[in-house]
Amino acid sequence: MASDALVPETRVLAIASHVVHGYVGNKMATCVMQAMGCDVSAINTVHYSNHTAYKQVKGTKTTAAELEQLYEGLRQSNLTNFDVLLTGYVPSADAVRAVGKIGRDIKFNAGTKPGSFFWAVLDPVMGDNGKLYIPEDEVPEYKRLLREADLILPNQFEAETLSEIPIHDLASLARAIHVLHSTYRVPHVIITSLRLTRDNQIPSSRPVTQPHTPSAEAADPLSSPPPPPPHSPAHEHDQVETLTIIGSTATSDFKPRLFRIDTPALPLFFSGTGDMFAALTVPRLIEAVSTSPSEQNLRNTPSWRSPDDVAAEDLPLAAACQKVLASMQAVLGKTAESCRAKMDAFDDAAARAGGGESETKRHLALMNASEVVVPRHVRDLLEPPHLERFRPRAVTVAI
Amino acid sequence: MASDALVPETRVLAIASHVVHGYVGNKMATCVMQAMGCDVSAINTVHYSNHTAYKQVKGTKTTAAELEQLYEGLRQSNLTNFDVLLTGYVPSADAVRAVGKIGRDIKFNAGTKPGSFFWAVLDPVMGDNGKLYIPEDEVPEYKRLLREADLILPNQFEAETLSEIPIHDLASLARAIHVLHSTYRVPHVIITSLRLTRDNQIPSSRPVTQPHTPSAEAADPLSSPPPPPPHSPAHEHDQVETLTIIGSTATSDFKPRLFRIDTPALPLFFSGTGDMFAALTVPRLIEAVSTSPSEQNLRNTPSWRSPDDVAAEDLPLAAACQKVLASMQAVLGKTAESCRAKMDAFDDAAARAGGGESETKRHLALMNASEVVVPRHVRDLLEPPHLERFRPRAVTVAI
């Protein structure tokens, strides 16, 4: 098909949550991947009015039977030859099992063509800040998914839970990633939003001090009380600091090849940034793998895993993350700016009205103002600005 | 918000069907309007695996109560200040009533600011080729919606049903549109995909000779047998002819101001083109109204209705349709080309295998190959090529 799109024709199945208003889950992932030129088929695991950080939401969940029925509809019409599967929040253990069956079916059918199917798992085990967001019985189901995945994007707490290694510095982080590579046989791992101190210590994920961009649909407001709000207005004026992402593509003996990219943290908390990161990473990785100078054709290599002689900072995964972070920094920076202006106007209006706006009304306005309205920022996604500021560096630690 | 988008910040609520695979209903409308820079909130009226022209589909419908619940979720968080409402297929009379309540609530809240809310209704009454696709009891509910609408996009059969005037030439078409303007108080009407003869006769919509781009989700395969397939493979090789769209913006006394644009018909039937037309028209109309040379500020005029001294061919609606048709011709032309190549490959493979592919398998392959994969064609949406070929002309007939 004639196209000026970034990536070759790419069919993605995205299984995650739908929100009517705002940009998290599949709403974010679909919009971002379509902007990058992907043909995205979306199976929605919940249908909510908005994301849960608003602290109030209405809607319904999709049952495991309904998920399986939709996939069966695709299967009977020969529509399941997906190149990529992206899975995010799934609302029950049964539904995670259904997603596993779907993924394994696609993978099985692609089995004869190495590299023709790639499975990215966002937010495995679904927890943050020292707290599981999902029922305990979902954890083993999520762990089973991981063993099929080509790329996982856990946060610090999830990486600790999966590896059973507490992360407190780069060496323990490297050990945890090593376990993820070797135990779960996951070739690619990215841990986003780490807050490293100057001497490369990593504060525990347990006490809630700073949010680590939890996926906003992680909590289940329809059947249990929401988690502690990650969005208290106090965070609006946090001072700028640094966020680090650490990525790794395993070598053939499942050793980590670690790179890091540091970005200035923005003085605002956004929902859906994990979903945005994952949705940008998939097409950027396809782009990097397709244009990789390696003699091997990575697109036909299982899991697009680079040969052992490729250094960490030269990995396609590192090149992808560099572009992803440059795009996100630009989009989130503009969103922070417009959010600040909207909240100043809100506060001015409230002051003129005698200061009578409730804390709840202000919180709702802040949530709305901090939505990342992707369709207004497509150019920054396609042409990541200031790429040189996000150069990946190899991390060398003894593990 | 800093943006290079086509339209000013525009919040759209789109209420229509979702398909996992392919591009019809809300899947088409959301993707198109996001590509044009709109912030689209999508309430999905069905969740189907694919569109119904595949002749097999799985999934579920959204109940009226679920639709109302999602809207109530938006309302309680102050998220209902939409600029535009686009409504399409709704699966039951109860659900149409729910959509009516939603639309009237948004309209009521926007009441103090003329022109700040615009309601477009796609496929009113849902029928084609002389046949209703919906239960009889939905028709009065759809008619009630129309009285609220600013723009409707009926097909020939729907225009006949609503106006109770059989359309057989330009004069009867003009009379039908006059009735739509005056009886339903709809300021803007567009009738797409008319097949006019050389002497401007319009064949009856009753006998099925050529499909008039019915909305692919119109049929209800989950509770009734699907309508006669509009996509039989025989249509692949129909010879090129002309399709005409007729549009009108009413004068202050509800007289039609008619314009026409003729386009070469493509030798292939596509699903979702009505949805694509509507989704492109909304942002293009906003663009045309915002840049209109009229002394009156149309954006602050109820229904963005031009003053009486604006000629038919100079209407913002005509300017919008010109760009919409130029974009669609480009995208559908490329899709037809790629479809032909894919079907040739399919037929070659079948011939090599001894000609053993079933008619069903070929039909499924054809449906898939004729999907309009919007994310691969965003440039043609943003920069409509060969605009001069789609110049609107005034239609002057005595009515």
Automatic annotation (TrEMBL), chains A, B:
Residues 118-199 form the Pyridoxamine kinase/Phosphomethylpyrimidine kinase domain. CDD domains: pyridoxal_pyridoxamine_kinase. Residues 201-213 have a biased composition (Polar residues). It holds the Pfam family Phos_pyr_kin. The keyword Disulfide bond does not apply. Its EC number is 2.7.1.35. The keyword Nucleus does not apply. Keywords: ATP-binding, Kinase, Nucleotide-binding, Transferase. SUPFAM superfamilies: Ribokinase-like. One of its GO terms (biological process) is pyridoxal 5'-phosphate salvage. Residues 201-236 are annotated as: Disordered. GO terms for cellular component: cytosol. One of its GO terms (molecular function) is ATP binding. Residues 223-232 have a biased composition (Pro residues). It is an enzyme of class 2 (transferase). It comes from the Eukaryota. Belongs to the pyridoxine kinase family. This is pyridoxal kinase. It comes from Didymella exigua CBS 183.55.
